[in-house]
Amino acid sequence: MYSPVCPLDYRYGREELKTIFDEHQRLQYLLDVEAALARAHAKVGNISDKDAKEITKKASVLFVKLKRVAEIEKETKHDVMAVTRALAEQCEGTAGKYIHLGATSYDIVDTANALQFAAATAYLSSGLKELRKTFVGLAKKYKKTVMLGRTHGQHTIPITFGLKMAGYAMEVDRHLERMHECKSRLLVGKLSGAVGTGAALGTQALKLQDYMLRELKLGVEDVSTQIVCRDRYNELLGCLCNIATSMEKFATEIRNLQRDEIGEVAEAFEAKKQVGSSTMPHKRNPITCEQICGLARVVRGFLTPAYENAIQWHERDLCNSSSERFIIPHSLILTDWIVYQTNDVFKNLKVFPQRMLQNMTISNGLPMAESLMTTLIAKGMGRGDAHELMRTIALQAAKEHKTLKEVFVAKQSKKPLLATKEIDAALDPKNYLGATEQIIDRVITKLER
Question: Which position among 24, 78, 277, 322 bears the catalytic label?
């Protein structure tokens, strides 16, 4: 007996998601589709209600055992045939001979995939809603907490930590929209036979398909080949990659702001027992954020084989099958996990407003150059002249290691441009936040409606 190899088995992923994709639940989804197919046949009169009820009763992992399915597959080298035979063995009377009637394997497989997608995306959407709620809470709490804005890794002008969180909340909200919109195209199955014509299903093929899929609460593939068209799966994978990328973006921001030389926020650290390094006792590493970043890259890595799977020979080949056994469960389980972990990071985030204010002083007031410039413009100076004046003052202050105020005051000593009170007001970061509070309030109103 070997130990687990895949980290999903022992390290990553929520149990609810892993259960959706485990062998027992996968078998149950396949059986659910076979049972729905039997009931559809009974509805149009192809088989008796009695046989359909018997198939439905026995289409359960309580009767059809994984061990028996594996034994049959070892002989037949066909996974779906193994399921149908194992189910037939459990059915009494004539019911067994009507299992899988008129269907091809991927009528069952792709419809079962859609059932898994429905369950998995519901959990993922729930996780995204929780994360959105966390970000809204942080936006409220830190609406007025001033910090440096940074572009190109350099100090710019003041923002608030609440504004940053409001932006994250809206990004998560857009992902929820995308997930919702994606489902109308993703949650479809098929019952159309070997090449999509439904020939083996007889004259009532379209009715059978409608009955079966409606009962399973799925849409119908408009024109299938032997499989559901993989552009649908690509849309899901693209959506998951987009979500994973946002999680990495959020986590990367925490990793940067936690750097010793910045120190404005920090991932929670269990001081009593947690170890940061096997050799450096002082280390408090942002390990969860780093895990999020690493796993997000794995999710994006699944996009290439997913797109290649959509390129099928004629009505279908088998190249998609093996890779999708990895791609589908791993991408959904990992994306849900990193959303869950991101929520955990931000729910327990340590925020240091005093350090944010201290960092405002590092650049000797230079981030307020634009504020002084706009004040000069308001007093009547031309925009170009005001910009050039503040540019030269800022360069001089940086070169001479003086504050922006010192150089500005010295510059205007002969010809005062602004009163001391006006200079001080322009240099106060709290006075140069523009519409920040209104923007945050608008986000809160929108997301709490």
Answer: 277
Q: Distances in Å between the alpha carbon of 270 and those of 11, 20, 284, 323, 351? A: 19, 32, 9, 39, 16
Q: What is the C-alpha to C-alpha distance for residues 112 and 109, in angstroms, rounded to an integer? A: 5
Residue 152 a catalytic site member: yes
Q: Which of 248, 258, 250 is nearest to 350 (CA)?
A: 258
pLDDT of residue 449: 79
Report pTM: 0.94
Report all structural domains of the chain as residue ranges with CATH numbers, in order of start.
7-98 (1.10.275.10), 105-358 (1.20.200.10), 363-447 (1.10.40.30)
Length of the chain: 449
The residues of the chain scoring below 50 in pLDDT are 277-283
- Straight-line distance from the first to the last Cα atom of the chain, in angstroms, rounded to the nearest whole number: 54
d(CA 251, CA 267): 10
Set 3, 152, 282, 413: catalytic member: 152
* Residue 162 near residue 141 (C-beta atoms within 8 A): yes
